[in-house]
Amino acid sequence: KQARQLENELDLKLVSFSKLCTSYSSTRDGRRDSSDTTPLLNGSSQDRMFETMAVEIEQLLGKLTGINDKMAEYTNSAGVPSLNAALMHTLQRHRDILQDYTHEFHKTKANFLAIRERENLLGSVRKDIESYKSGSGVNNRRTELFLKEHEHLRNSDRLIEETI
Fold first, then answer.
1. Where does this protein chiefly localize (predicted)?
2. Pick from 19, 22, 120, 151: most CB atoms within 10 A?
3. What confidence tens digit (pLDDT) does each residue in 72-85 have?
4. Model confidence, pTM
């Protein structure tokens, strides 16, 4: 009974954990405006939420592991040989559920950490690109003027050479 309650609670937590990780990646990937217009605490609050949920899920997984161990001790005791097959089947089912939840948790956590690391690495590159694009209007205009002046000088030099 306790195992089923923890499994239900873990299932709900894992779904919300997965949604948090998905929303983090979609807000980061979908954002194209400069970092000056985004809230400063948005990423850090999601990081804190991630850490809190990860700790809660790890604690629930630990509790479920303990309950599964207690059930294994009970099924191995000498007083229950007649119900041993049914109990072993139930225990195996709970172990499989625990293994699935643990695998899902670690996979989701690894994906989130990879997305966060990618964003941290590429964030400075995006900022540099945006600053170059915003500043390139002035530099681009200045470069065009220099190129035109250079072309005029070359044409003048060519005409003088032809005249001489």
1. Golgi
2. 22
3. 887 777 565 556 77
4. 0.63
Written as one letter, the residue type at 155 is N
Residue extents of the structural domains in the chain? 1-25+44-135
* Alpha carbon distance 69, 64 (integer Å): 9
Count of C-beta atoms within a 10 Å radius of residue 102: 16
